[in-house]
Design brief:
- The protein is mainly beta.
- The protein has a domain at 338-367.
- It is built from two helices and 26 strands.
- The protein has helices at 126-131, 330-366, and strands at 2-8, 13-18, 28-33, 48-52, 55-59, 63-65, 69-73, 78-85, 88-95, 100-105, 111-116, 119-125, 158-161, 178-186, 192-198, 203-207, 216-218, 227-232, 238-243, 248-252, 258-262, 269-275, 278-283, 287-292, 307-312, 317-322.
- Strands 3-2-1-26 form a four-stranded antiparallel sheet, with no helix packed on it.
- The chain is globular and about 100 Å long.
- The termini are far apart.
- The relative contact order is 0.12.
- Component of the pre-66S ribosomal particle.
- Involved in the biogenesis of the 60S ribosomal subunit.
- One of its GO terms (cellular component) is nucleolus.
- Belongs to the NSA1 family.
């Protein structure tokens, strides 16, 4: 049985359980944490799940949790690292650019990336971001009649920063508005493969080892509005993309073609969580859907994904995450349930026998 953690607009945390290969068995959505009723902003923005000593650790704030510390970043660029050691909580604070739309930690945890409104995709060293002192450089104003040069100097702790694409056909600068990003691979602290989606419908792939401009720029992917979310799949060359409308599709990273799309979605998909042969999505129509997934193929895609099941949420789901535990086969799950049921039945029969013995003993005493 696969288990996913779902957060909603009210700050609640729920578990979604889905049994593979079980026909007629509806997904189970159960609340495990009630959100706070205080404050105006209660929605769960990001979920981070990690496992340590066979225990699942869940963090419901805009952060990433690890066995050592918790990293959090706000849209205003307030970066915070909280560490708990020997009962004491220590926090480190750093400042990043403002107007951020997305912030992601690399799989190895040594680096992170962000992007936003007029904020290019940037990669930072996690440790240096907190140790490097802020540097403020004051430059004199340029002489009259000369254009002001853009500052491309990397900030302390910054490893790499993307460069805007070429001007359009009219020679005008193209605006920058990155809405979502995901790490495809990370071989070292300075070598990363990143995909970012923009408000203007572009899906761009960056290789920090190759160049500052995107190595691939696909602009005919989404159908309505801009890119809402991008998420790397577990299959090779697989990327899931959702737009501002109600479209969710699987993208082939080799050529940027849409391998297949999902039908029957009535709201914008705001979050996706891939698992082996599965994809769970959270949409604004208050439905959490379970999708089937297949590896992208060159040429005609023989097998296409579909919506397997869906479950209604009383409040709008905002984020979903897989607990990273192995998906158990349905046969093993059924055997475990039968063994547990048999054990419970045997215990009830033993208690009934003890009750009969006590009744017989009382009757003998009365005689």
């Amino acid at each position: 049985m696969a288990r996913f953690i779902v957060g909603d607009e009210l700050g609640n945390l729920k578990t979604l359980r889905f049994a593979l290969g079980q026909e007629g068995d509806a997904p189970q959505l159960k609340t495990i944490h009630q959100g706070s009723v205080e404050g105006s902003t209660r929605a769960v923005q990001v979920l981070a799940v990690n496992t340590a000593d066979n225990e699942t650790i869940v963090r419901s704030h805009p952060s990433v949790v690890s066995a050592r510390s918790v990293l959090s970043c706000t849209a205003n660029g307030a970066l915070r690292r909280t560490r708990a050691a020997e009962g004491q909580v220590e926090a480190d604070i750093a400042a990043l650019p403002t107007r951020l739309c997305d912030w992601k930690l690399a799989p190895n945890g040594d680096a992170f990336a962000y992007g936003g409104d007029e904020v290019e995709v940037s990669v930072w060293d996690t440790e240096k971001a907190f140790t490097a002192p802020p540097v403020v450089v004051s430059k004199p104003a340029p002489p009259a009649g000369k254009k002001r040069k853009r500052n491309d100097v990397l900030l302390p702790g910054e490893i790499w920063r993307a460069k805007n694409v070429a001007n359009d056909n009219l020679g005008l600068r193209q605006p920058v508005h990155n809405t979502s990003l995901t790490f495809i691979s990370s071989t070292s602290t300075s070598a990363h493969d990143i995909v970012a989606g923009t408000q203007y419908g572009h899906v761009r792939r960056y290789d920090t080892r190759a160049a500052r401009k995107p190595v691939a720029d696909w602009d005919n992917v989404v159908k309505i509005g801009g890119v809402r979310a991008v998420q790397k799949g577990l299959n090779e060359h697989e990327l899931f993309v959702s737009d501002a409308g109600c479209n969710l599709m699987s993208l082939d990273l080799r050529n940027g073609h849409v391998a297949y799309s999902y039908k029957g979605i009535a709201g914008a998909v705001v979050s996706m969580a891939p698992a082996p042969s599965l994809l769970v999505s959270a949409a604004l129509d208050r439905l959490v859907r379970i999708h089937s997934t297949f590896s992208p193929q060159l040429g005609q895609q023989d097998r296409k994904g579909e919506v397997l099941q869906k479950v209604f949420s009383k409040s709008v789901p905002t984020v979903v995450a897989w607990d990273q535990r192995a998906v158990q086969p349905q046969t093993a799950l059924k055997d475990a349930e039968e063994a547990e049921e048999k054990e419970e039945t045997d215990r009830l029969w033993e208690e009934m026998e003890d009750a009969d013995d006590e009744t017989s003993a009382r009757k003998k005493q009365r005689k």
